[in-house]
Amino acid sequence: MTAASSLSAVAVDPRDIDAVFFDFDGVIVESNEIKIEAFRRLYEPHGDEVVDRVVEEHVRHEGVSRVVKLERFHREFLGIDLDADGLAELAETYSGMVEDVVAACDAVPGAVEALAAWSAHCPLYVVSGTPQDELRRIVARRGLDGFFASVFGSPRVKPDIVGGELRRIGVAAERTLVVGDSVTDFDCARSLGARFLGRVPGWRESRFPAGTDIVEDLWPLAQAGTAAARPRAEAGR
User: Which class does domain 14-30+107-235 fall in?
Assistant: First the structure.
């Protein structure tokens, strides 16, 4: 399935949703290529074969903490077991490569408009594999923090974050929407029984199962939030 099989503007009605959890990279900001380039640069001294394996595995497991990836990539691809200090230093080097660039990169088309529309209906959250402190700095630097009830990052994993927050605020999973661009996000929603919307840009093939609701950008979600503010009869015209 490609991004051509997209969600219509009114397929998700905010009156049926009590909380929305957004991934960040590739969903709110166009930062996936930035993260790929950082992994490429980090492993470039080890040769093209290692770089290709690292990039392939990073893309396959988007949404997973970089600390988990770095430890595994060094162990499996380089035969190096990083100690805690070495892993922390490597993760800090990676952060230095990406934070300023992600804070300044383009937003996904329609993302800010979707946040504005949906924040009028229910609490919104970010849930990402990016380290939480770094993520919160980036969200604040982009002026987006006012849209969110909270911004969550690693080291906690997404199902624990979303499930814990739903229990805290008393929202049923079936009235929750998870918006993501990775299989990690899809699996999080499925494990909890939440609804899922996948973002698949036009240049990328969908990695989601057949029948998954997907959009090329977030304009349809923004339109759904805006349309639902009008009476149903008018919104359906």
Answer: alpha beta
- Domain locations in the chain as residue ranges: 14-30+107-235, 32-104
- Expressed in angstroms, the distance from the first to the final Cα of the chain is 28
Contact present, 177 and 192 (Cβ < 8 Å): no
pTM of the model: 0.87
Would the CA dihedral through 123, 128, 132, 133 be positive or negative? negative
Number of CB atoms found within 10 A of residue 204's CB: 15
Per-residue pLDDT of the chain (237 residues; tens, 9 = 90+): 344 344 444 478 889 999 999 999 999 999 989 999 999 999 999 999 999 999 999 888 887 888 998 999 999 999 999 999 999 999 999 999 999 999 999 999 999 999 999 999 999 999 999 999 999 999 999 999 999 999 999 999 999 999 999 999 999 999 999 999 999 999 999 999 999 999 999 888 888 999 899 999 999 999 999 875 544 434 333
Place of tokens 């996000």: 185
